[in-house]
Design goal:
Length: 152
């Protein structure tokens, strides 16, 4: 939850914490100190967004893929999306934007991660009106999501 500590690293975590301001890192630290441990993979917590153009940031810890992709990695990633959606709905949010969770330095294969994201969101939206935005940074991911969502 504390974000990336690699200076000038172009990951989404670093971008969010940089542009939200130091208050975001302080709020995350307070949550972690109160719970007494780091955030578990697949769960979600919400903080104010501070200097970002949104009201809240929903934080999740995605699985780190070292070696072969396993069913446990896939279930953990699915849990990330489900936990975020449930938290958003519990707090009456009308929309949520997702990055490509775990596909950067956490090495989750992009195409499989997108399949899990889209499938999880589709299942959730069967009983929810929340608007979901998939925010991608790479052209590769844009093509994958267009293919999966049928928006080519």
């Amino acid at each position: 939850m504390l974000g990336c500590f690699r200076q000038n690293h172009n990951c989404i975590d670093n971008c969010i914490h940089t542009f939200a301001g130091i208050q975001l890192r302080a709020a995350c630290l307070k949550i972690m100190e109160k719970q007494g441990h780091e955030e578990e993979t697949g769960s979600a917590k919400m903080t104010p967004a501070f200097n970002l153009p949104s009201k809240y940031v929903i934080h999740t810890v995605g699985p780190i893929v070292e070696g072969n992709l396993t069913e446990k990695h896939e279930k953990s990633l699915e849990s990330c999306y489900t936990s975020c959606l449930e938290l958003a709905e519990k707090n009456n949010l009308k929309s949520i934007a997702f990055c490509c969770i775990s596909t950067g330095v956490f090495m989750f294969p992009n195409h499989r991660a997108a399949e899990i994201a889209v499938d999880t969101v589709r299942k959730f939206k069967e009983h929810s009106e929340i608007e979901v935005i998939f925010n991608v940074f790479k052209d590769e991911d844009l093509q994958i999501y267009r293919e999966l969502l049928g928006t080519d």
